[in-house]
Amino acid sequence: MRVLSVVIPGLLAFALGCGSSDEVKPERAVVFVRGGFVLPADADREGGLTVAVDGTDVELTARRLGTDRLLFEYPWQPGRDYVLVSGGARQTLTAPVRPEAVSVAVVELEKVHAGSVVSGGEPDASVAFSADGSRLALGTFGGYLRVFDTRTGMCVFERRFPGAVVKRVAISHDNTRVYAGEMSYDGFVSAFDLATGRRLWRFRLADELETSEPAKPDDLFAIYAYPQVYCMHAVSDDVVVDGMHSWKPGGKPRHLSRLYRFDGKTGRLRWRFPRDKPLERNIVWFDVSGPTLALAAHQWEKPRPGDTVPQNAVMLLDADSGALIDTHIFKPLEPFFTTAPMWYGLALNDVGHLAVGLMDGRGAVFHTRADAPAAARKLKPVGAFDLATPIEVSGVPIYAGAGWAAGDGSLLYIMTDGRLTAPSAGGRKAVGADHPAANTVFAFDGRTGKRLWQWKLTTTAQFLAAGRNVLAASTQQSFSPDDPMDYGVTVFDTAAEGAPVEKLLYRYHTAGPIVALAVSPDGKTLAAVEAAVRLADDINTVGKYRLHILH
Question: Pairing state of beta strands 391-393 and 514-519?
Fold first, then answer.
């Protein structure tokens, strides 16, 4: 086992199994974070802190953050003066306009390949918080499953899966089990007891979705032709898994996908969708909110003559039974596309409204009537948008895919990515320009579909995550070596009133691109995985494969 050093800003804190960490710059003695103050730990402060404001004293209790910091939760307001008293010492501070992010831990992960600033190819990673935000699961390209305590940054669980990428992770709502979904020859789904590390059960996707042999076994990306867990969510005591296998036997594309709901404790299969056999499409993403489950299914290729399997479909299921409730088919955006491709651009909010982003630049909002009995739920369109659909620049149609979506409360979000040339352009050379709406976050009212606000990021957008009143968007790669390498995470307070700039909380910068992102359900903690990327000279690199946990 490798030794991990977790660094809290300015101080090497502790060592344990799971990797190593980089030092970060020391920060000021008091940091105003979202919902409280962070101070260095000492014996006096551990006994509490008094906040005096407008002649009123409020006693606060400390909560450990990392190993050398204390968090005192308090709803401070920008521009106001606060007197902090601990151990007889008094300090008067004026609250800033915006909070800052405090790094709980920066954890260096195993050595993996670097991507390319020109062609991409960064290594996969996956992060998921527990329901209460106290635990974070991490799956890596090198086949590691790790679980961290988000208050201290300590690694509390580690498992290695040789010959596999840990493609997706989840934690049971009671923090007793962690789930791992592989991309591997077998495509296993596994559950482990968090306290003992004992494997509780596993299920082999390849038994139903088949397996395959890579055409080029030595290719770094050959593993992507294996069956895999493409999406996974912990639901109550259960876990719902999207199994997908997309490969080219004999050079001809083939796709098999299926959803499964397992009893999280025993692995007993509660239902499959479809019931009779796997779907001959890619179930690329799904989301669950209460009794409602929505999934996106498509294939990149134009359907063959006589193919009657639903294409370019969003399907609504009853999450308890797996029964199909409704289907919405998107027609291709002609003449630019022959299909209506989807990726991660599907999300439900807390009350069952649905956002769908298509990789042709379109977006849509649906009302699912999640509060109605299953038979009465429908995919009712309440908004359709040409967010970044093709426009011609120098005779070439350029667009941006709407590949990301998120939901929180009654709000929905769709995000576009960077510079792309429509398939109808054939072999014509791409222009050196972005679509005007590329790399943009759009916010919608889920009830009405009304567009509320938007924010343009500095470079290629990749990954969107939401928690209570918080939205985070990250940047992954540049589609051109001429683009700025402004990597990191942009975080918004979605409950703040006023113009979009009033919603901006902070920017957290990283040296390399972000390849995984999550926000805890309570909106207080953020996790991002950074990767290394080779510059245009194909020699020098920036960034490291490492995990950032922020409060």
Answer: unpaired
